[in-house]
Amino acid sequence: MKIELLKTFLEVSRTLHFRVASEALFITQSAVSARIKLLEDDLGVLLFDRSQKHLKLTPEGHRLIKHANELIFMWQKTKQDVGIAQSNTMQLVVGSMMSIWDIALQDWLQKLHKNMDDCSLLTKTYSPIELRKSLLNRIIDIAFLFEPSFVEDLVTEKVATVPLHLVTTNPQYESETENFVIVDYGEAVNVKYMRDFQHAPAAKHHMSQPIIALNFILDVGGSAYLPKQMTFEYVRKKKLFIVEDAPIYSREIYANYLAKSQKVDMIKQAIELFPFVKL
User: Fold this and answer.
1) Domains parsed from the chain with CATH numbers
2) CA distance 223 to 201
3) Which among 199, 255, 246 is positioned nearest to 223, based on CA atoms?
């Protein structure tokens, strides 16, 4: 099964249109159609329902999306690992939740690049459940989570504590519900917020990623609990203001890795470049 077929399938599943997919892939529409037909023949199933005016995924097509993403990533991992075999370089596959990339891992990746010449990085974003599964299946080498897995085969290390401050675009801020955006930092923070603001009206907006909430309130105004590191420059430039009398929450970031990984020494060296800090 060729990787090109899977990439074409994912693009068609995203656009649900052969012509639009062909434009995105820079190939002809007939080539897209031929690739999908070849993939369907290989699998022995129909991936798209073509009987209606608009293209639809079949149940088999829906199931293939997850596997296609995994296979493409594994092929990328394999190509990189084989390609660096002659350079005395070792691959380090890092997985994380999206919000942790935004909060803390960008600077850490730069430190790895500058201080570990023998390290070739490959990164991937997963949900917490996918992170645990990928780690145990040795697809990734190290995972970053807010709530780690305390499993016998895994080592857990706390690498950072992230303060969450209530910030606002309005220097005359008076109400915690004024265009307030709730950001999902997990159940631990959600419970504390509901306790502290139990009498407040329901928030107008809910967002899953702090970077989305940050850009939103900078564009249209409002307030949200955001990581101190993410808002530091905006506070300094007086584009955001910390609400001094609001409760301060925090989230811990943990690293998980396999205790018997062949890359334990490299993983430990990498984590040492991410010392326990309050961001």
Assistant:
1) 3-79 (1.10.10.10), 87-160+252-278 (3.40.190.10), 162-250 (3.40.190.10)
2) 14
3) 246
Residue range 111-131, pLDDT digits in tens: 899 999 888 999 998 888 889
| SS3 at position 45 | coil
- Give the angle 98-106-229 at the CA atoms, nearest 5°: 85
Q: What is the pTM of this model?
A: 0.73
- Distance CA(166)–CA(4), nearest Å, equals 46
* Two tokens, residue 239: 């584009």
Query: Contact 42/1 with Cβ under 8 angstroms?
Result: yes
Kindly state the average pLDDT of the residues 247-267.
92
- Phi first, then psi, for residue 150 (nearest 5°) are -95, 75
Residue 123 neighbours by CB under 8 Å, 6+ apart = 93, 94, 95, 96, 101, 109
Cβ count near 266 (within 10 Å)? 19
Q: What is the mean pLDDT of residues 24-41?
A: 92
Q: Calculate Rg over the CA atoms of the chain.
A: 23
Containing 162, the helix (H) or strand (E) segment is strand 154-168
C-alpha to C-alpha distance for 30 and 32, rounded to whole angstroms: 5
pLDDT of residue 178 exceeding 80: no
Strands 154-168 and 277-278: parallel
CA distance 251 to 249: 7
* Single-letter residue type at 71: L
Whether the per-residue pLDDT at 6 is higher than 70: the answer is yes
